[in-house]
């Protein structure tokens, strides 16, 4: 498979060729020049009417103008989609940031509540200490009062009472000194306890103030959270509106793509021998289902998803080496310029056997800024000439269909060959991992996503094919 063929122009990314004007339609088309081109191109009935009254050359020119019309319309839709995607992206970022802000506020509120609870415990402990200290103060006061009362009573005794109560005079003075020492110590203890109580009172006041500050902070944080949640709800509301608009644009683009594919299909069927592109999803499914069964059970949805990205389901089979075609982007680029010289002999043999001109039969190519990259893939399934001719795919298709020679531009042969290729790499197991590996091999020749394959767009390619397959499977399950 060619590493660049998947980058072939497809109909999800049309390039504008020319602006459509009334003067682009010559009078010999057989319809009034002033008639709106869009009305003609959007109506199968009107296009079919023109086919009946125009020559083949004139009809092809009309179809070419219709293709240009759809190029322009799709370009406008793409611009709108890009704008809407940017709006969606901006809203998603804003919603994400608000979500993170709300989460941060939640954590801050919880943290503050824990701190408040801790401060409450500290305040309770401090209050208990204050109460205990107050009791000690009262107890010390009572003891001090008892001492003072004893001293007072000693002071009131007469000399005779003292001599009578004490055996000696020194005993009296010893007792008196003891009471006075006790009085002094009691006073010191009382002062210390009072200092402790004052300290505890100050500590409690500080804790109360700190708790009040945290409670105030929590209130502010809760208000900020409520405001952020309201803003987030508003953003989500507008995001839903934007998403709805985006989906409408995608639907409109899909409809335009469908019409454009029909136009290209008409052109292809008129100009390339052997090409009969199915016109409806059901017909495409029947073709893919037939191919999948003959290849040992490859899912039709996977085949359709693959060929959709390869060639827009057989409609766009190449824009180089195509001077015989009315729609040809790079007629000046020959097959020898876009494919490796190793592929030339096989391509010449294939076209000769099919009675096609090797110099005018379309092949894939990729041109970026004037730089031509290797291409050369053939037909709806985009097989490289050597792969088709020398890897048994041509032979297997001929054996299964009974038709010789097999034609890589014929949809039935191309679908069958694609299914056989996928089956060779395990897709007929219908397991998701095997299917991804087979699709990877279809582009890169190996089931492993190598660095070279990644550089060639392998991850995008595989993901897009699988997404297409999912969409096709949904259609199939719903019965179209």
Walk me through this protein's architecture.
It is a single chain. This protein has 480 residues and is an all-alpha fold. The protein has a domain at 14-140 and 199-271: Helix Hairpins, CATH 1.10.287.1490. It is built from 15 helices and two strands. It has a two-stranded antiparallel sheet with strand order 1-2. It is elongated. The two termini are 31 Å apart. The model is unreliable at 1-34 (pLDDT under 50).
Shape: elongated
Reported by name, the CATH topology of the domain at 14-140 and 199-271 is Helix Hairpins
Number of helices: 15
The CATH architecture of the domain at 14-140 and 199-271 can be named as Orthogonal Bundle
Given this structure, which CATH class of the domain at 14-140 and 199-271 is correct? Mainly Alpha
Distance between the termini: 31 Å
Strand order of the largest sheet: 1-2
Q: Uncertain regions: pLDDT < 50 for 5+ in a row?
A: 1-34
User: Which structural class best describes the helix and strand composition?
Assistant: mainly alpha
Q: How many strands, which pairing sense, and closed or not: the largest β-sheet?
A: 2 strands, antiparallel
Q: Report the helical percentage.
A: over 70%
The total count of strands amounts to 2
């Amino acid at each position: 498979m060619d590493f660049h063929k998947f980058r072939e122009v497809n109909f999800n990314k049309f390039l504008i060729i020319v602006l459509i004007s009334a003067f682009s339609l010559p009078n010999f088309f057989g319809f009034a020049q002033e008639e709106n081109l869009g009305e003609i191109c959007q109506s199968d009935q009107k296009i079919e009417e023109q086919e009946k009254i125009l020559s083949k050359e004139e009809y092809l020119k009309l179809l070419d103008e219709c293709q240009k019309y759809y190029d322009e319309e799709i370009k406008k839709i793409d611009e709108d989609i890009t704008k809407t995607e940017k709006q969606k992206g901006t809203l998603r970022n804003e919603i994400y940031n608000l979500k993170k802000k709300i989460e941060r506020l939640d954590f801050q509120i919880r943290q503050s509540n824990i701190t408040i609870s801790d401060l409450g415990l500290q305040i309770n402990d401090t209050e208990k200490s204050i109460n205990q200290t107050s009791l000690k103060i009262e107890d010390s006061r009572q003891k001090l009062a008892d001492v003072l009362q004893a001293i007072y009573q000693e002071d009131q005794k007469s000399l005779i009472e003292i001599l009578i109560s004490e055996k000696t005079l020194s005993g009296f003075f010893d007792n008196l000194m003891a009471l006075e020492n006790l009085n002094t110590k009691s006073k010191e203890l009382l002062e210390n306890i009072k200092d402790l109580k004052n300290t505890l009172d100050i500590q409690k006041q500080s804790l109360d103030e700190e708790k009040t500050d945290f409670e105030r902070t929590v209130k502010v944080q809760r208000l900020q959270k409520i405001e952020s949640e309201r803003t987030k709800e508003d953003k989500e509301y507008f995001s839903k509106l934007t998403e709805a608009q985006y989906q409408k644009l995608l639907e409109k683009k899909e409809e335009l793509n469908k019409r454009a594919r029909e136009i290209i299909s008409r052109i292809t069927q008129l100009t390339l021998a052997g090409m009969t592109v199915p016109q409806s999803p059901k017909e495409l499914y029947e073709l893919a289902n037939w191919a999948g069964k003959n290849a040992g059970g490859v899912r039709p949805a996977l085949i359709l998803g693959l060929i959709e990205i390869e060639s827009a389901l057989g409609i766009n089979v190449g824009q180089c080496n195509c001077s015989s075609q009315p729609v040809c982007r790079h007629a000046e680029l020959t097959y020898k310029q876009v494919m490796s010289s190793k592929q030339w002999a096989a391509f010449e043999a294939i076209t000769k056997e099919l009675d096609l001109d090797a110099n005018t039969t379309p092949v894939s190519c990729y041109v970026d800024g004037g730089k031509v990259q290797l291409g050369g893939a053939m037909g709806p399934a985009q097989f490289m000439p050597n792969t088709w001719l020398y890897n048994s795919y041509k032979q297997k298709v001929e054996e299964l269909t009974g038709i010789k020679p097999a034609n890589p531009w014929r949809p039935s042969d191309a679908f069958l060959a694609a299914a056989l290729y996928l089956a060779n790499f395990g897709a007929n197991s219908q397991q998701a991992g095997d299917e991804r590996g087979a699709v990877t091999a279809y582009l890169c020749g190996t089931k492993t996503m190598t660095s070279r394959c990644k550089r060639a767009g392998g991850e995008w390619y595989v993901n897009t094919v699988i997404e297409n397959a999912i969409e096709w499977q949904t259609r199939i399950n719903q019965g179209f």
